[in-house]
């Protein structure tokens, strides 16, 4: 499906004149959106964007909203902000539904929305796995450790997959809080998995991996929960467990703008660290991945910042590589790091 959005003034049309609107035939599956209706003027707005663009930006990221419904919201917002002087308009030949932003619950069919957004998950006191989950939610090692120790293979085998997914999320959470039994659960997981049906261990591991990257509302975390990241990703070396890492990659491919490489892919990543000498020693000048410098966020004018204005921090190589690993969401064993001096 092709979606073409024409913002005010972008096509050189005089939108205040009806004769500026030229009839045309569009292929099936096309939507063209205009900032105004015929005979109206597109207003500039009060900020850096015109009124139409500002209204569009307010709604384009709405979850699970079809493009037609989203455009109606844009039209209403635009009308309100211009006191009815500007009404957006669309020409469409769409035959199917198109969404700019599908929620994680719509993208991933393996688990229920109440598991992916586990703050909505309802615990049943009579369910053995739910009792363990409830105990893990208490930030107290004396409650968490015995709860995990009490969990049997029979309890896991009898549980539904959504419960096991939420169990996995809470095991990882407890491990990040340094609950020893939770950390041991991760370390010993290959042995546990070998005695379980595939769908049972997969649900637990899916949950642990999901917790690293997604919060309790099912939203992508601003920064990953990395306290036990390396230990958890060591499980990727077991071929038996590969399916869960494929599941994670499937989840994260929906967010290409958030990652330089998609976590979960079991392949080596080559990184070139560019350094240069100065009066204070060795200064890192670039982190190159695939030929691009990912050290600096791109500015509007694409200029790298003046290094004289940057606050410097001294860090040893081991710590730096650990930070780089977690920021990329790639375990250190998969990073091939080279250092170049000039």
Mean pLDDT: 83
Radius of gyration over all CA atoms, rounded: 26 Å
Tell me the major beta sheet.
4 strands, mixed
Strand order of the largest sheet: 6-5-4-7
How much strand? 5-15%
Low-confidence stretches: 8-22, 297-302
Task: Label the structural class.
Answer: alpha/beta
Helix content: 25-40%
In N-to-C order, the SSE pattern is EEHHEHHHHHHHHHHHEEEHE
**Tally of helical segments:** 14
User: How many distinct domains?
Assistant: 3
Distance between the termini: 48 Å
Globular, elongated, flat, extended or rod-shaped: what is the shape? globular
Number of E strands: 7
Detailed description of the structure:
- It is a single chain.
- With 342 residues, this protein is an alpha/beta fold.
- The chain is 38% helix and 12% strand.
- The chain contains 14 helices and seven strands.
- The strands form two sheets. It has a four-stranded mixed β-sheet, with no helix packed on it. A three-stranded mixed β-sheet has the order 1-2-3, with no helix packed on it.
- A hairpin with a 2-residue loop joins strand 5 (281-289) and strand 6.
- The chain starts with a strand and ends with a strand.
